[in-house]
Amino acid sequence: xxYVSQCLGYKHMFCKNIRGRSxxxxxxxxxxxxxxxxxxxxxPVYNGEREIGRCIKALLSQTYPEELTEIIIIxxxxxxxxxDIVRAFxxxxxxxxxxxQSSYAxxxxxxxxxxxxxxxxxxxxxxxxxxxxxxGIDCINNGHPLVAGRIVFEISPSxxxxxxxxxxFHMNQQETxxxxxxxxxxxxxxxSVMETAGDFRSNFISGxxxxxxxxxxxxxxxxxxxxxxxVQHPARAxxxxxxxxxxxxxxxxxxxMLMHRSKWIAALETIAFFPYRITRHVWQVARAFRxxxxxxxxxxxxxxxxxxMFTATTLAQLKQILKR
Length: 324
Hints:
The protein is an alpha/beta fold. It has helices spanning about 25-35, 50-60, 80-85, 105-110, 130-140, 160-170, 175, 190-195, 210-220, 240-260, 265-270, 275-290, 295-320, and strands spanning about 5, 15, 40-45, 70-75, 95, 120, 125-130, 145-155, 185-190, 225-235. Helix 8 (about 190-195) crosses helix 9 (about 210-220) and helix 11 (about 265-270) packs antiparallel against helix 13 (about 295-320). It is built from 13 helices and ten strands. The strands form two sheets. The chain has an eight-stranded mixed β-sheet.
C-alpha cells in the first residue's frame, strides 16, 4: 500500500486509492473506517524463512484498510532466519511462543495479544489474494460469524502424483464445512465466538482446528464456506513431506479419539475401520479420474500414494493410542 497525505494536515497514513482526497472525502472515508471491523491476522511460523516473507507481503497488499488491519506473526521456536525476516517488516507485530511446540499454542498467543474484533487465521506457507480480508469480512457482515475460505493448491507443471494426492485429500473447505469443520489455513471468526468456543487445545499435534470447529459447531456456530476469500497453498511435492504430514495427522487423530474413548476402544475402532477407509481413499482418486481431473497414469500413481499415506496415518494413530 502506498503512503498518501491527507488534506487536513493529518499525519501520513497507509490507505488504498485515496490520493488527492478532498476534506469532505476525508470525512466520508473516516466514517467508512468507523463502520468497519478491526481485523487481527494471526500467523504461526516455525522455521519458515523460505515462505514467511511472501506471506507477509501478501498481507501488506490487502485491499482492506491498513488502519483496521493488525498482522501478528508468532514464532514457535524457529532456529533459522525466520525472525530476522519478520523483523524487517516494521508494520508487523512479532510474538514468541517457545514454551510449547505447537502451532495451536502459537495461535493462542496471537489471540491473547490481538486487538481486533475479528480474527483471521492463515499459515506461513499460504499466500492470501489481495482481497482475502475484504471478502472474508463481507461474509462476516452477512451474518456468518465463523467463515472458512477457499484454499487453492499450487501445483508444479510436472504435476507430481504426490502433489495431486495433496490436493485431493487435504483442506477442501467446501467439503469439510458440510461436516462442521475447517482448517486454520483460511479461517475468519469473530472474537466473541472465539471466546465462547474457547482457545485451541495447545497440546494437539494436529487436528486442533478440527476439534475447535466441532466445539464451535456444538455451540451453534458452524463454519460457513466463502469461496471468494481465497489463499494459495503450495502442494507438497515429495513423498517425504506427505509422509511427515500423514504421521502427524495420525497422532492428532489419536489425541482426538482418546478424549472420548478408552485406549482399547480407540485401538479396536482404528483397526476395524481401516479396510473401509483405505478403500474410500482409493475410490476418491478414481472419482477424480472419472471426472477428468487426472489421467490414467496419474490415477494409478496417486492411488498408490494414497494407500501408502493412509497406512502411515493409521500406524501413527495406533502407536499414539497405545502409548497412553
